[in-house]
Amino acid sequence: MKNECYIVRDLLPSYIDHLCSEESSRFVEQHITTCQQCTEYLNQMRGEFDIQEQPEISDRIEQKKPFLKVSHFFNAQKTFTKLIGISFWVGLIVTVGFFIYSLSILSDLDDGREEMQIIEQHKQDIMEKTFAVLSTQDNIDEKALQSIFQEYGGELEHLAVFSTENIDDVTRLKGGPTNIFPIDYSKAVLVIGENGKVTETIIPSDYDIGTVAMANDQWIVQYEYQDSYLGTIENAHQIKHYAPSTWTVFQLPIVFIIITTFILGGWLIQKRITKPVKNILD
Fold first, then answer.
1. Are residues 185 and 86 in the same domain?
2. Do residue 188 and residue 172 come from a single domain?
3. Which residues pair with 222 in a beta bridge?
4. Is the pLDDT of residue 70 over 50?
5. What string of H, E and C letters represents the secondary structure of 208-253?
6. What is the pLDDT of residue 5?
């Protein structure tokens, strides 16, 4: 064996571990291309290094297994935490949407209630003004009634006056303005329309909410709303008798606020639980 072989074999451990200088590495590589014995010796040394490293690798793998389990658990917890976070933001957006929608409904209801109060006030005003005319005159003042009709002309179709002597069962009309099925206009003492006294036959509306009547001991006053005004009357009637309460309007957003609050609490607790594990893995 040449002296060069001894030198190369002394360098092989460092060469295998990549610790040689570039010149030494070139020297070893040039030599093993021409020396079969040194090549075999190099392969043998590499095999021994692999055998020695294999148990170390296995030991490291065994040592890492518990950490891998913790890592898998943490990844699962992190995914779960992320889902809870997404659920919270989705719940928050839905809650805000329902809250805005409820505010719009409440605003519409407030507008409707204001309109309903105006209609109720007009009912009272029309009756008071008409009965005031009837109580101060021996004969019915047609011009005064026409003036009342014109004042509310955008709402009224007819304004009629009846004598209680010609009508049965007027007791229920003495409590104030009441919606009724129209009294037959042929029994009226006077009917006022847009152009003054109405003499032709009137076919009353069969829509009882569209007719209002009130009585005292001597007179019954009845008026019908115009067809174009009946939609407003219907809305006012629905709001007066069937409008939802403020609690009902905000019930759904309140439920979502509670649900979203619970989700937020769960999210914060979950983040607090996973934080120590994250710190360990980091």
1. no
2. yes
3. 160, 213
4. yes
5. HHHEEEEECCCEEEEEEECHHHHHHHHHHHHHHHHCCCHHHHHHHH
6. 83
Is residue 143 located within the same domain as residue 86?
no
- Judged by DSSP in three states, 188 sits in coil
* Higher per-residue confidence, 61 vs 140: 140
Task: Output the pTM of the full model.
Answer: 0.62
Same domain, 123 and 232: yes
Q: What is the CA radius of gyration of the chain?
A: 49
Q: Say if residue 21 is in the same domain as residue 36.
A: yes
Q: Look up residue 276 and give its amino acid.
A: P
Residue 67 lies in a domain: no
Residues 97 and 149 in one domain: no
- Look up residue 37 and give its amino acid: Q
Residue that is last in its domain, among 203, 218, 238: 238
% helix / strand / coil in the chain, to the nearest 5? 70, 10, 20
Q: Highest mean pLDDT range out of 51-65, 127-141, 229-243?
A: 229-243
Inform me whether the pLDDT recorded for 109 exceeds 70.
Answer: yes
- Alpha carbons within 13 angstroms on the beta-carbon side of residue 105 total 18
What's the pLDDT at 57? Answer: 46
Question: In this structure, is residue 61 part of a structural domain?
Answer: no
**pLDDT beyond 60 at 261:** yes
Boundaries of domain holding 190: 117-238
Q: How many domains does the chain have?
A: 3
What distance in Å separates the CA atoms of residue 112 and residue 116, rounded to the nearest whole number? 6
- The per-residue pLDDT for range 148-173, each reduced to its tens digit, is 999 997 899 999 999 998 888 888 89
